[in-house]
Every structure is written in structure tokens, then in C-alpha cells.
Amino acid sequence: QLQLQESGPGLVKPSETLSLSCAVSGGSISSTTYYWGWIRQPPGKGLEWIGSLYYSGSTYYNPSLKSRVAISVDTPQNQFSLKLYSVIAADTAVYFCARHLRDHDVFDIWGQGTMVTVSS
Amino acid sequence: QSALTQPASVSGSPGQSITISCTGTSSDVGSYYYVSWYRQHPGKAPKVMIYDVTKRPSGVSNRFSGSKSGNTASLTISGLQAEDEADYYCSSYTSSTTWVFGGGTKLTVL
User: Fold this and answer.
1) Helix-then-strand count for chain A, H and E
2) How do residues B60-74 score in pLDDT, each as one tens digit?
3) Residues of chain A where predicted confidence (pLDDT) is lower than 50
């Protein structure tokens, strides 16, 4: 059974870069069937799609975050990563990574999520 | 891109049926059959309940069903159970090759 696990710092200072990784186990990140995505959820609020990546390196970003986001893949390590630049307090959220089924555009497997707080 | 519009809250008694709406535009819900629904219990990751507007993943109860008319998709839960109390989110593919979620609906089982 495929599993996803997020990792990274739980506290980031304003104006710095948020960096998270998502380790994929029980399956290959190089599958042509899936995208790999990041979604976040501020405390007490709803889900926001951040971006998705295909194993070849093609990326798709939320227009509202596009200028500050980069998602990349590390095929040998079977993981993908998120960088969010110049963070502000409003970027405080639980960050989820998820497998994204291409032909049905559904996020079918999710990581447990990791809380990131932006504060000095 | 704007979030899809969902009611903030719905409620129902055990055994009853409820429907949650998800309104988008002709650039997302109205143009594609790539609408999915997720259930999220407090402190947990979302779980997909419906995809491709009407399809249920293996293991999801047939009490959950989906439909779409124009720019609005709907999730219906029949035979409400206590375990159904959760937040529900819809999601759609868009014409900009992006994906968008709804604002979420809190379901209370009375």
C-alpha cells in the first residue's frame, strides 16, 4: 500500500523559505499514472491546492502562489519537495502531500500532514 | 482562481439524507466531469469519497452518491450515521490546468 510522509521544519521565520519533502513508499514516483501534489490548510480554514508535479518535472501551480512556489522531484530518493519563498504569517498551515490520479484528477492518497508555523 | 462555493454547514438526524452543493463556473465544474468529494475528520487527512462526479472508490459506502447539473455538483449522504459528522470538501479540475477546492461544509449529525 502506497504511503506518503511529509517532513520539514515546523517553524519558519517571516521572509524566509519554507521547505518540505514528501517521501513516497510502497510505489514509484516515476509512475506515468500520477501527479504528486501539495495542499495546505490554515488553522480552522479550508483546503487550498498549492501545486502538482509530474515525475518528468512538469509543474502546475496555484496562480495565487505561483510567484513564490517551486515543486521539484527527486526520483532516486523517490520523493518530491515544496519550497515556498518569502513566507508570511498567512502561510501558517498544515501542509499535506498527496498522490494525484491523472486521468481522474482526484487526490486519492494523502500524507498525514505537517504543521508549519510562520513566526519570528 | 476562486474557491468553489459550498454551504458553510448542513445538519441532519441519524437515518436521514442530506445534500451538499458545490457551485463553480463554466471553467471548472461546468465543463469537466472531474469533480471529487473529500471527507475530513478533525486532525485527520482528507479521504476521497466520490470522484469523476459519481464514482465511489473501493471501500466507500454506497450511502454516498454524487451528481452534477450545470455549474453545480452535489454530494448526497443517505442513512446518516454519527461517523458521517465531519467536514466535506469538493474539488474540480479547471480549464487553466489547475485544481480548486471548495470552502468546505461542516456536517453535523443531530
Assistant:
1) 0, 11
2) 999 999 999 999 999
3) none
